[in-house]
From TrEMBL:
Assembly behavior: Dimer of dimers.
InterPro entries: Ald_DH/histidinol_DH (IPR016161), Ald_DH_C (IPR016163), Ald_DH_CS_CYS (IPR016160), Ald_DH_CS_GLU (IPR029510), Ald_DH_N (IPR016162), Aldehyde_DH_dom (IPR015590), BADH (IPR011264)
Binding-site positions, K(+) 1: V27, D93
Enzyme Commission identifier(s): 1.2.1.8
Molecular function as annotated in GO: betaine-aldehyde dehydrogenase (NAD+) activity
Lineage summary: Bacteria, Pseudomonadati, Pseudomonadota, Alphaproteobacteria, Rhodobacterales
Protein name, entry field: Betaine aldehyde dehydrogenase
PROSITE patterns in alphabetical order: ALDEHYDE_DEHYDR_CYS, ALDEHYDE_DEHYDR_GLU
Domain of life: Bacteria
Residues modified as Cysteine sulfenic acid (-SOH): C283
Cofactor binding notes: Binds 2 potassium ions per subunit.
Pathway connected to this protein: Amine and polyamine biosynthesis; betaine biosynthesis via choline pathway; betaine from betaine aldehyde: step 1/1
Organism: Pseudogemmobacter faecipullorum
Record-annotated active site: K161, E249, C283, E458
Entry keywords, A to Z: Metal-binding, NAD, NADP, Oxidation, Oxidoreductase, Potassium
The gene coding this protein: betB
Amino acid sequence: MKAQPKGSHFIDGSYAEDAAGAVIEVVYPGTGEVIARLHEATPALVERALASAARAQKAWAALRPVERGRILNRAAALIRARGEALAQLETLDTGKPIQETRVADWPSGADALEYFAGLAPTVTGETIPLGGDMVYTIREALGVCVGIGAWNYPSQIACWKSAPALAMGNAMIFKPSEVTPLGALKLAEIFIEAGLPPGLFNVLQGRGAVGAGLISDPRVAKVSLTGSVATGQKVYARAAEGLRHVTMELGGKSPLILFDDASLEDAVGAAMLANFYSAGQVCSNGTRVFVQKGLKERFLARLKERAEKIVLGDPQDEGTQMGPLVSALQLEKVTGFIARAKAEGARLVTGGGRGPQNDGWFVEPTVFADVTDHMELAREEVFGPVMAVLDFDSEEEVIARANASDFGLAAGVFTRDIARAHRVIGQLEAGTCWINAYNLTPVEAPFGGVKLSGVGRENGHAAIEHYSQVRSVYLGLSPVDAPY
Ligand code: NAD
């Protein structure tokens, strides 16, 4: 299996290479095989990418938004037409099962392109009457934006960042995660084919230092990062030196609260989706599942039954429901969490092992019950298929415990009592919330976190504000009244 691209980087409309950059081996998590060898961007390539983005952005911003939108729509149509090939590449890059990558990753990216293509032409300013004079405002592009991606949804992240950026007249330089660098290059190719002028979406490969270097360049107006809290803190601090705009989509330890009156099947289904989709490597996962005591034993019994039927295996097999973790490093981290959870006294309900083959980077869908708030499993982001089930008695108690976290990305509530659903969700400290649903992230809805989980929002109308700024123009219509 080989997935070697024509070059490591994509700059000013074509692939670029510089063998002087350190090697990045791209590994297929299904087998551990090296499927491509790329090079990190050298300073000369970084300079080319910045110069071409800065050059191209001005003319792009001067177009009518509807013209920019037309190109983004064409890119979305190309993504949909090539859905199968793109899904296969995403599976090679990430190890996620083909049944997920066909429906979730690129399709959600195409949604974002279509949504912002349609939204950008509707963005207008205000006119503010001042008696005789007036002020009008215009929302305009920021300039060159840097996007830095995580490895769990590489192509979706590239689209979610570039779609609003480009729609609003910005250029974007995107640095994918060094673990999953392939999808963004395909996106760059597709944009050119769709008619995007060269330079507006450049891709540079590299580890953290390449991203860090980009943020400090005076030509860069904004950085949007999807990654861990530790990286977010570094990137935010660096961006602050130049007072650059930021969007930070970081980690979480989100609560999913299941009341006694919830539908058992829905609660179990949501808890599984909230912990096992993409082998648990989803930032918004509801990894602290608070179950009210009256539901607890029924919930655990049904969860065990359903979780044990999940088909773990070859990600390219259409029947596979859960693939391996993305890397050997991630496997080591997740198995470490499992071992420590056992040592701390959490009760293993199911899973905990490496799956039927007992090799590869697989971890079985794992459920721990009787988890208490102070245990590591209730505090730290695992980023693997490991669910922590905690018990609770009262509404008041569960709200306080759910909020006792430094994270605040997402939260969910399951109950048939509609007043309670709204009352509880309104008190949870989280940016992205669900009632009787979990982990659905349509592009129409703003997505992002509070507290250490992030700053700013992706998707929805909210994203427009994060990729544009307001110019206010005072229009003098009366004689100038100078006191001198
Ligand atoms: P990571 O923080 O290790 O890396 C993220 C990206 O930042 C990578 O491209 C990396 O090369 C780059 N980077 C690292 N150090 C940098 C630096 N000093 N300056 C600039 N860039 C730097 O995260 P990861 O392991 O790739 O992804 C997993 C994390 O991402 C989890 O914590 C997860 O919760 C989070 N995540 C959040 C969201 C969200 O939307 N909120 C979505 C997906 C993943």
